[in-house]
Design brief:
The complex is a heterodimer of chains A (119) and B (127). Chain A is an alpha/beta fold. Chain A has one domain: Hypothetical Protein Ychn, Chain: A, CATH 3.40.1260. Chain A has four helices and five strands, in the order E-H-E-H-E-H-E-H-E. Chain A starts with a strand and ends with a strand. The relative contact order of chain A is 0.27. Chain B is α/β, with parallel strands linked by helices. The chains are: A alpha/beta (119), B alpha/beta (127). Chains A and B meet through helix 4 of A and helix 1 and strand 5 of B.
Chain lengths: 119, 127
């Protein structure tokens, strides 16, 4: 099955990001396709390479980047939500790209299921 | 949905608005997605439940909280061919509101009818 994911909460503050990541990895392991992960609201904070968690904690941003590199997952950050929150091209971690909300709608159209992770 | 159909896919997109218009950004950013989705020629509907019904209340004044009053945008929705607005009956009643308090025409549905409508959708985005 082809899944689109929407992540709408910030990393570390909220479980949504972790659950989305675990869902995506589990789906890939089962042979499903993750068509795109779209980051909206505070979810855009998943995309900044300035993130530096304590060493004994998971690195949420690097984890997404590794997923994009290994499994060719399209990680898209909403431009309007990102600019509001100081996320720009110059701070993007590898594997992320900034684009418009149309990419979320496109996911809704093309994916078999669009799954939301947030409140 | 059939894979064989030709032409652009039209899916039923429902936006479920559950939050008060101010206090968090969800309502505003939901509206932004709605407006974009409308430009994709999809079948768009909006639902207002819980504190989301406050998004449609007339006479919003936000000057004193220093935040833009975006409620006039709901009036512009029909210009985008977004005309299906549904409001949860119980949510209105619990907040002492009636249809006449709202700034756009809506259809008020009970929970059962709302549930049936949701079951018909292809994509539900909840804010």
């Amino acid at each position: 099955m082809k899944f689109g994911l929407l992540v709408s909460e910030g990393p570390y503050t909220h479980q949504a990001t972790d659950t989305a990541y675990q869902f995506a990895m589990a789906a890939i392991a089962k042979g499903h396709e993750i068509q795109r992960v779209f980051f909206y609201h505070d979810g855009v904070n998943n995309a900044t390479r300035l993130t530096e968690p304590p060493q004994d904690d998971r690195h949420i941003v690097n984890r997404w980047s590794a997923m994009a590199a290994e499994h060719k997952v399209d990680l898209v950050v909403c431009v309007a939500a990102a600019l509001r929150r100081g996320i720009k091209d110059e701070v993007l971690a590898p594997g992320f790209r900034i684009s418009g909300l149309g990419q979320l709608v496109d996911s809704g159209i093309k994916a078999d299921r669009l799954v939301t992770f947030g409140d | 949905m059939s894979e064989q159909q030709s032409g652009p896919k039209v899916k039923k997109f429902m936006f479920v608005n559950r939050k008060a218009p101010y206090g968090t950004i969800y309502a505003l950013e939901s509206l932004e997605v709605v407006l974009i989705t409308a430009t994709f020629d999809q079948d768009v509907s909006l639902v207002f439940v819980d504190d989301g019904v406050y998004e449609l209340v007339k006479g919003q004044q936000t000057k004193d909280i220093g935040i833009k009053n975006f409620s006039p945008s709901y009036r512009a929705l029909d210009g985008y061919d977004v005309e299906k607005l549904y409001v949860d009956k119980q949510s209105l009643e619990q907040r002492g509101l009636t249809e006449s308090d709202l700034l756009v025409p809506v259809e008020v549905l009970d929970a059962k009818a709302m549930g049936e409508l949701m079951a018909e959708q292809d994509v539900i985005l909840s804010f």
